[in-house]
Amino acid sequence: MFIRVASAAGDPRRRRCRLRPASRTGADPIAEHAAHSARSGHSKDREMQLAQALDGAPAPIAETSLDPYGQLVKMLMPRAQSIAIYDRLGLPVWLNDGSDAPELHRLMQDALAQELADGGASDGFAEPVDREHCAYVFMLRDASHQRVGAVGIVCRESSQRGETRPFSLVQGLLRPALECLQRDFSSQYNIVDLQRSLRLRDRDLELVLGAAPDESPSGESTDDFAQLVQGCVDHLDCSVGALLIPDKNIAVCRTRQGTPPRVGAEILTRTHRPLLAWTQLHRQTMVANRPAANGPLGALPYKVLSCPVMHGAQQVLGVLVLFKPDASDAFDLRQARIVELLARRVAYILMNAYDPTTGLLTRPAFEKRAQSLLTPAALAQGQCVVYVDIDRLHVLNENLGMHVGDEVIVRVAETIRRRLAPRMLASRISGDRFAILVPEGTLDEAQTLAEELRDGLSRLGFLAGSQPVEVSASFGVASVADGKHPLSHALASAEIACKAAKDRGRNRVEIYEDSDQSIVRRYTDVTLVGTLRYALSQDRFRLEAQPIVPLNGAVIGP
Q1: Residues 6 or more apart from 330 whose CB is under 8 A from it?
Q2: Which of helix, strand or coil describes residue 386?
């Protein structure tokens, strides 16, 4: 609503005008209109439409003084007794002194209701009040014929017979004031709309930047996906949001506050298969504000916005999907573009956090996710790692070609992926080596997993042309102990156990135990090698003694 700036108290040329309520009782004009509509036979649906239109209208214009416009109207229409200026919601923002103008407020609300019902855009109307007075309502519209305000006046008629002057005549007399007021209102509303749009864009930017890459994008985790989906749900006012990446075993579902999680689970159970199938087929964004009963989702009581998560231009990795109730506002182009940007962010994370050949986590992503799981409380419950090294892969590469070696790596990774239980993490940490984190698992459970993998890999043999290819791997298992670098130490221990498995014949599982002297000795050797390499890099070797020997080989005594 306008906030009028009163004129200076000492200026006798200015009349001070006050913003008065729209009725003598001080009632809200919207509520007063509802009561009047009930008396005059308006339907409840029409009242609800008007209330929704008023509630959804943008904020009123900024602070301004309307005294000059009121004075100009009075100058152009000296017989005017009541003058009222309304904003685009139909609420009074300026009244001349000594007038509450209830007739004008009633006419204004009736005009708004009629305009909402008919969808018209009239310039206004005239209506007799009594034998001596007539009310005029002038609508102020911008270049696109949108209402920006209104002016109402009640004036005494000059004719003794009480004949009403034509509306067009009075409108012509007031045209200078109406045009100036219309331009002022339009300009100020444009400013308010622009400010509102900027606030909305700021929120969009916050959502997009909240999912922006950090210095180490490969370290993103599924927690980041959960935050991204929750941000979409909250920012776009959705009931349910989900991210589905089947090949990566990623399924994230989030609901807004007040919506039970089971609602999201039920919606996804019903829609995830047709959504993924449609996305794979069309590879484009789908906006279904009124899902058809014969459409891919069936008769769904939700508005749907789904966007494919793409790798390149052709490969669909998954889908980012949002659901709104039928009664909510429709998804628009701006929201679709935001979701497309976030889907690209998801694809960026997937490309950097997952190995492109195997689909398993890269080593940096594995380490970051594992470290987030290895809290003190989790370490107290027991955690284990499994280290996998494919046997004789270099022989296959040299004899049959690198493409055969790559095929073996892909098949081994697929076997590992199929065996992963929930919350387990698997990574391709180097060319032919893999690591698995077994959370809340004992050494026996990790050993059982390793034995199952070993048995599965031993049956992966295939033909490369006419050459048989045998596949096997060696496994090392170690527990994760609490310490300064628990994951690094556990991986080093599991790697030593894996090397021991290779020393003892390959295609076997070994557990790192302090009581196994051969493993302890290998651990000591590996540790010593690391220490020597570090000393060389830091130039920490010092010459303590160096014998001097003559070239002829003669022995020189001390």
Answers
A1: 289, 303
A2: strand
Residue 511 to residue 443: CA distance in whole angstroms: 8
pLDDT at 214 over 50: no
**Each residue of 256-278: pLDDT tens digit?**
988 898 999 999 999 999 999 99
C-alpha dihedral sign at 440, 444, 449, 453: positive
Q: Which helix (H) or strand (E) holds 497?
A: helix 486-503
Q: Are β-strands 124-128 and 133-141 bridged in parallel, bridged antiparallel, or unpaired? A: antiparallel
DSSP state of 55: H
pLDDT category, 27, cuts 50, 70, 90? very low
Location of structure tokens 């390793």:
450
Structural domains present in the chain: 29-190 (3.30.450.30), 217-353 (3.30.450.40), 363-537 (3.30.70.270)
Which DSSP string corresponds to 196-264? HHHHHHHHHHHHHHHT---S-GGG--HHHHHHHHHHHHHHTT-SEEEEEEGGGTEEEEEE-TTS-HHHH
Check pLDDT > 60 for residue 405: yes
Please report, as a single letter, which amino acid is at residue 58. Answer: P
Name the helix (H) or strand (E) containing 13. none
Residue 516 has phi, psi (to 5 degrees) of -85, 105
User: Which of 558, 406, 394, 381 is CA-nearest to residue 479?
Assistant: 381
